[in-house]
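User: My collaborator sent over this chain with a note saying "see what the structure looks like." That's all I know about it. Can you take a look?
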Amino acid sequence: MLNKKELYALKHITKYCEQLGEIKQRAENSFDIFSNDKILQLSAGMCIIQIGELSTHLTEQTKNNLSSIPWKSIKDMRNIFAHRYGTIDIAETWNTIENRIPSLLAACSAEIETNFAYAEINQNQLEILKKEKVQFSIKKKNNKICIRYYKFDEEKINNILKSSPPQYKPKL
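Assistant: Without extra context I'll predict from the sequence alone. Here is the result:
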């Protein structure tokens, strides 16, 4: 299970991956447009710097769990953007955006999802939870209330509700 710092880092890595996807769209999925637009290149560089920096907040265990991700290469690319801007290979940057960022986004998103728990609760329990300082999302379906929350808050939520852990995992 991720700690809060790692969960924060992975959520922000996914945000920067999504922004790199937007940069690719603004370039109309074209290397030629990207290679001639310094603003898009600088924006991509900033996202890559942030991803590399955020990766330093992950434990070795988490990096090992996400072993398909080339963490050292991510950090190395971050260092090139941060410290040797004149040596940046625009073609390699585009290749990263096009071919590596989608798998990074998918892996980080999947790891984040494994850190959520689910429970079905009643209206009274929902009102109690709303007064507490725990994060959760709500989905109502067929007169049932399902919540999604971080596993590291599970004990706190169960204590608040004075109930046992959820027995199933509904799809939200």
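A starting point for your reply to your collaborator: The longest helix spans residues 90-113.
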